[in-house]
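Consider this one:
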Amino acid sequence: MQDLIRKQLAQSIETMTKVLNDEAIHTAVVEAGRITAEAMKSGKKLMVCGNGGSAADSQHLVAEFVSRLTIDRPALRAVALTTDSSILTAIGNDYSYDNVFERQVEALGLEGDVLLAISTSGNSKNCVKALKLAKKLGIHTVAYTGNKGGTMAELADINVIIPSDVTMNIQESHLALEHIYCMVVERYYFGADFGKKPQQLAE
C-alpha cells in the first residue's frame, strides 16, 4: 500500500511539474482572470459548469468568489450552474442531460458575461453545448480541460489544458489553477497590491 501511495503522489507531482513549467497555461490563466475581472467591473458575472468532480470544482470555485479565498473583500458575482436540482432534473427530464448547462446559459447569460466550462476529457456534451451558445450570445468563454483539450478547445476563447490523460491528475491541477485564477481576478479587480500586508507594501 505504501508503494501505491508513493506511485500516485509521484504521478501527481509529475503532472503538476509539467503545469509549473508550461508558460502557455500560465498565460491562459492570467488572461482568463483579466477578462473575468473586467466583466465583473462592468456588472457582469462568471458562470461555471462541469460534471462529477468538475461539478464539485464549479461549486468550490464559485464559493471562493462569493465568500472569499484568503483575504476579506467584497463578494464577486459568480454562479455555479451545477447546484439547482430542480432546474437540472427538469431540463434533464424535459429535454436531455446534454442541455442542462446550455439552457441555464440561455436563461441567465448576458453579453459580456464569462462562462468557465470544466471537463477533464474536454468532450462533455453539456459543456460543449453551453460553450457554443455562449459564443452566440457574446459571452466570453474559458475551458479548463485535459486530454489535449478535446472538442472544447475548438470552442473556448481561452484554454487551460492540463498535459495529462489521467482524470485524477487533471482534476488536481484544475483545482490548483482555479484557486490561482480567483487570485488573479482579485488582483485585477482590486489592484496589484490587493492582499498584501502593510509591511509587504513597504518592501
Q: What stands out?
A: Residues 167-190 form the longest helix (24 residues). Residues 2-191 form a domain with the Rossmann fold fold (CATH 3.40.50.10490). Confidence is low (pLDDT under 50) at residues 198-203.
